[in-house]
Amino acid sequence: MRAAPESAELPVALVPEPRTALCEALVDRLRAADYAVVSRADRPLDLLVAPIAPRDTPEATAEGVFDAIELLRGCRATTGALPRRTVALVHAGVGADDTALRHLARSLTRTLLVYLTAHTIHEDARINAVHVPGVEARVVASSLDLVIALSSGLLDGVRGQLFEVGAA
Amino acid sequence: MRPDLAGRAALVTGGTRGVGLAIGQALARHGATVWLTHRWGSVDDAEVAAAFPPDAPPPRVVEADAGEDEDTRRLLSRIAEEHERLDVLVSNVAVVGRGRGLDELSRRDFARGLRYSAWPLPRYLDAIRDTFGRCPRTVVATSSDGVAHHYPGYDYVALSKAALESLVASLAPRLARDGGSIFALRTRHITTRGLGEVFPDAASRLLERVDDFALRPEDAGDAVVAMASGLLDGLSGQVVVLDRGAAYLDNLMSVGPLLMEGVG
Predict the structure, then answer these.
(1) Of the residues A75, A76, A83, B146, which has the fewest C-beta atoms closer than 10 A?
(2) d(CA A76, CA B139)
């Protein structure tokens, strides 16, 4: 699936650094889908990927969720507009395999999506999240597929949802 | 069926007004000795006591900051002077800070909401276990449907309640080891003074038009009594939604006509 054609230029996706293996794999997929991938918001963004990972403590995990808000605000401050599409990628952090912390990251993200969507409802911006429950190749592939689908424009009517990959 | 909680001790944080007070009153009506904490503002102990049924054990009112471990230890020591165990813990305290849109969301206020409303729950359980040798038989964390639905200005409270619900799920196995149960009680808007502090008058007046769905503080109290009775132990770790079924009518086609009654 190709990126939604907004102009003659390549659409721009921001995937912040440092990048996990999952984010690097996503970068490859985005490039294959004709995105210009950047690590700083130096021009209006078609897609922002906001990684959210559980950390060592509940407090630190909550801080990490708030980082996504600052990333979003930073993009608007720099480019003058929110990214047209934002996907928060909620995944296991390095060494943070604690089920409780992952549950916490997901719960906070789900509620944050409700409020961010309400705050941006009149803007050309939709914010969703994908929870990646593991590192199995099949799970990762499905998660990346979902991010590509959300960035395509076909799902622009979907706002504020947290998708659970492999929940069935 | 009328649960008998006589001889049991219950602690309700943020328990001197609103929903917390109603929960304390309900537990006391069923015989429990209730400890109510507060942190900010002056509380008239006699006024709180007068709100309790005359035939119920009188409430104990203690100032204790839920975010301060030292306060928690002091509080539990006082309870231990009167009781061999603490049977019920209701984590109700919440800091009401207004969110003002994406640009104004503050990391400090976000952390503050969590510090007072969510993180104390596991700390309280640790301290109770240290003091009494076991966790309470019943633990209830009060939440709200702001976790799943946008309410203007409710960002920080909603996020702290989301964290609280997550903690409830995570703590259930620990409670089970002590033979206890833990629940999140997620309520729709309840008409209290706190509601008026968060939402503007116009919203409160509009809510009166859909009064069929408005909860009374006593509804929350009754639900906590049911949880303390042991009859809901099969639901430990889960969120119990108390909303009179309003979630099923939460759309403009259903609610719109009610809101428009008598307008134009």
Answers:
(1) A76
(2) 43
